[in-house]
Design brief:
Distance between the termini: 41 Å
Oligomer: single chain
Largest sheet: 9 strands, mixed
Radius of gyration: 25 Å
Helix content: 25-40%
């Protein structure tokens, strides 16, 4: 079945992935494409032009092929996307004397399908330093704000808004997007994850036939849900490998053995990884070393099986693809992800990535539909390189033991306070510094542990969690009392952006 599709043109906004999620929440499939995309428009019922850190009048600012405006496909420009529309239809875009960041009062000025059922006045979320100074040719104003006379405009099938309807703080943002999808694009609402599961199972069977597939099983949500899907699709042709790098949570191995009773192979490789990482402090180098070591172990394992394995399956998600810059657009590469970076060009397997256009919450829902236990479905994201990137700087056996003990305490206490399923991630980081302390009337000089607890919808943006002092006190007391080598605990109160969730 070919689903109706919304294309989202990515100009580098931090909110682009959020637009994609919002569209899917409204039961319409969405896909992110680079600014210059002009390819297959089959089943495309609408186009959304995202925001951007650029200004449309800058040199080398990303732009679209103007032919998209002649396709007779409904278009919605958001923030920078409004500027793109203005630029292509003769409107002037210029720096605003007064920039708008945060909440603003929006007024609907004229009837429009885009604002059907929306109050005349509402709060919207702004994030811009430019604005339309003159109305593009043939357009009419349908809404304004205090700082933006042309805050919302339309002409035939083309619409533009200065604010961000995809952001939670815009009061009726979801309703505005629903209006665009169902009133303007005439969406059928045919995107359902249950259908996705059936389609992917059939697609996997068609691609794999009777060939064999190997999967690196980390114990995380993505790879475990993928393993379950593949097990249903191809049965004994799936070979799962859990590489115990020593950098993962100690309970992962036993948990996986309970879920998968056939074709699960465990490789003990802690010493290999620690030796390879000896003396390495750069986080990107750590990631690449771990990725390459993984591939080496896979190759040796496959040779030892004496089987012809054609496919390698990975639980790559959409944010992994975006952040690792496999979708070519103006977004900055943030870091090399374990499942999309570090793979050698001469990889002898064909790659299967059924989840590469899905977000984490969608994979969780698939796991639920497949009957996996809650302890897997709601498990917090864990970095592919594991504790290697939660030990800042060089890694050794002592540091690994410290961070694992501290991390387990954080996990236990967050669960005890009933917050585990309410926050996105909660974990400990071992810092490469020591501080003076006093324990039992004696001076100590020991390591510092940083605690990171964040709230997020998809990991693309995140806010630090305002958890209770009681929880932080409990975590701190337990770590300094139970973890030998630590005498100080600090709490990270930085959001993403400007920081990333992980420290490395």
């Amino acid at each position: 079945m070919k689903h109706q599709k919304i294309l989202i043109y990515d100009f580098g906004s931090q909110y682009t992935q959020l637009i994609a999620r919002r569209i899917r929440e409204l039961n319409v499939y969405s896909e992110i494409v680079p600014p210059n995309y002009f390819g297959d428009f089959e089943n495309v019922i609408g186009i959304i032009l995202s925001g951007s850190p650029y200004s449309v009048y800058e040199d080398n600012a990303p732009d679209v092929n103007p032919e998209i405006f002649n396709l007779n496909i409904p278009i919605l420009g958001i923030c920078y996307g409004l500027g793109i529309i203005g630029k292509h239809f003769g409107g002037e875009v210029a720096p605003s004397p007064k920039r708008e960041y945060g909440k603003a009062l929006f007024k609907v000025l004229n009837n429009s399908l885009l604002f059907q059922g929306i109050p005349v006045e509402s709060i919207v979320w702004m994030s811009h330093g430019d604005k339309l100074k003159t109305l593009p040719k043939g357009f009419k104003i349908i809404g304004s704000s205090e700082n933006s006379e042309f805050c919302a405009i339309e002409k035939e099938h083309i619409y533009g808004v200065q604010f961000h309807p995809e952001v939670y703080h815009t009061q009726f943002g979801k309703e505005i997007l629903r209006n665009f999808l169902y009133n303007i694009c005439k969406a059928k609402g045919d995107w359902k994850l249950s259908d996705f599961i059936e389609e992917k199972i059939q697609e996997i069977r068609n691609v794999v036939n009777n060939e064999k597939v190997i999967l690196a099983l980390s114990g995380g949500v993505d790879s475990t849900v993928l393993a379950k899907l593949l097990e249903i699709a191809i049965g004994d042709n799936l070979y799962m490998v859990f590489v115990d790098t020593g950098l993962v949570k100690d309970y992962e191995k036993d948990r996986l053995k309970k879920i998968f009773q056939r074709n699960l192979f465990v490789i003990q490789a802690k010493d290999e990884f620690l030796n390879a990482l000896k003396g390495i402090s750069d986080p990107e180098e750590k990631r690449k070393i771990i990725g390459n070591k993984f591939i080496d172990i896979f190759r040796n394992f496959v040779k030892g099986l004496n089987l012809e394995i054609k496919f390698l399956a990975q639980g790559t998600l959409y944010p992994d693809v975006i952040e690792s810059k496999r979708v070519v657009g103006p977004s900055d590469k943030i870091k090399t992800h374990h499942n999309v970076g570090g793979l050698p060009e001469n990889l002898e397997f064909e790659l299967i990535e059924p989840f590469k256009f899905l977000f984490k919450d969608e994979v969780r829902k698939i796991g639920k539909l497949l009957g996996l236990p809650d302890e897997i479905i709601y498990k917090h994201p864990f970095p592919g390189p594991g504790y290697a990137v939660r030990i800042i700087g060089e890694i050794d056996e002592e540091k690994l033991k410290i961070v694992k003990q501290a991390d387990l305490i954080v996990e236990e206490e967050v669960k005890n306070f009933g917050l585990y399923n309410k926050v996105w991630q909660a974990f400990a980081i071992l810092l490469p510094i020591k501080s003076v302390g006093v324990m039992g009337d004696r001076r100590t000089y020991e390591y510092v542990i940083a605690i990171r607890i964040v709230e997020s919808e998809d990991g693309m943006t995140a806010d630090w969690s305002k958890v209770s002092y009681e929880l932080l006190e409990r975590i701190s007391n337990r770590i300094t009392n139970e973890v030998k080598g630590v005498n100080r605990v600090v709490y990270d109160i930085t959001s993403k952006p400007p920081a990333t969730i992980e420290w490395e």
